[in-house]
Amino acid sequence: MTDKTSQGAVPVPIAVPAPITASQAGYLVRVAARAPSLHNTQPWWFKVRPDAIELYADYSRQLGTDPIGRELLISCGAALFGLRLAVRSLGRMPEVELFGEPAHQLAEPAPRLRLLARVRLGDPAPITPAERKMLEAVPHRHTHRGPFEPAPLPAGLLTGLRQDAATEGATLAVIDQDRVGRKLATLLATASRDQDLDPVSRAEILRWTRDPSSPARDGVPAHAFPAQPGPSPGRPSPGWLPQRDFDLGRGLGRLAAGGPPAAVTGVLVTAGDGEEDWLRAGQALNRLLLHAARQWVFARLQTQPLQAGTIRELIGTRLALPGVPQMLLQFGVARTAHPTGRRPAADLTGA
Question: Which CATH class is domain 157-333?
């Protein structure tokens, strides 16, 4: 196929995206759907085209504590990175087309599904060794809410995680442990305590946590949270940030609590605080989490305190961050993995 834009112009080849087979489509969606999401809500849906996979935000899974959809779009950005990585494993470069119409400008009532991105199989290019290792980490990457080992991060890993964030247009700012134990933890304590008491927040935790016998393939299962969330937010401990209480006194949690603090605390930062920034943050998040999981390093993801824009602004100012904080992460070594369930690809797709 050629493009002739004017009389006498030299024909310029136009790349034709490769077709996507049914088996490839299922594989691409399965990898994308292993992305992290708030409360494991998995707020995404995919449409399979002959030559593309379309990623949609599923607003039926939006949380009431996320009224502007910031965390929903961060989750969808993480799924977008997983989709890109899966395309690379097919020996192709992903061609990504974003659709950036803000949700508040959409027709009312807002649709349940909103198109965010279309991904095609682009030019042939072999997967790199680093990408292959990230792909191998997809099955065991998980949000870690239990104890870490008393060990430092592997040499060079932190530099690599910073580069991962930069590659996706974000910044991973590392906060030293002393500041974590004092300034940052103190900033977060009041916000976390207030949100723990918020009836909307508590109702959503009850909705999205699962008891040990539940067959659900979404939400946070009992094996993934402790009965006690850690040190009291009112008494910050060095190296600890306030953790969300998923158990709410029900005695469901099966995960061990306590143990050494995280080895490293970081803040994922974007230049702005708009929808493209949130999608960018999600892609950076999944990329660096998969890189870490390659070396059995996992992260606690602290989202609750950042749900309020005023708190995000305050943290950015007090810690002199180079932008807007989108996610707090605490990294540590853990040699066991029990990933949370995922909905099957057949429930996530349509023609």
Answer: alpha beta
Dist CA 162 CA 294 (whole Å)? 15
If phi over 0 gives left and psi between -120 and 50 gives alpha, with beta otherwise, what is residue 156?
A: left
pTM given for the model: 0.91
Ordered per-residue pLDDT tens for the chain, 351 residues = 333 333 444 444 446 789 999 999 999 999 999 999 999 999 999 999 999 999 999 999 999 999 999 999 999 999 999 999 999 999 999 999 999 665 544 445 557 999 999 999 999 999 999 999 999 999 999 999 988 999 999 999 999 999 999 999 999 999 877 766 577 877 777 777 777 778 988 999 999 999 999 999 999 999 999 988 766 545 556 667 878 889 999 999 998 887 888 899 999 999 999 999 999 999 999 999 999 999 999 999 988 778 888 888 888 988 889 999 999 999 999 987 778 899 999 999 976
d(CA 310, CA 301): 19
Residues of the chain with CATH 3.40.109.10: 17-140, 157-333
Return the CATH number of the domain spanning residue range 17-140.
3.40.109.10
Q: In 3-state terms, what secondary structure has residue 351?
A: coil
Q: Which helix (H) or strand (E) holds 324?
A: strand 324-333
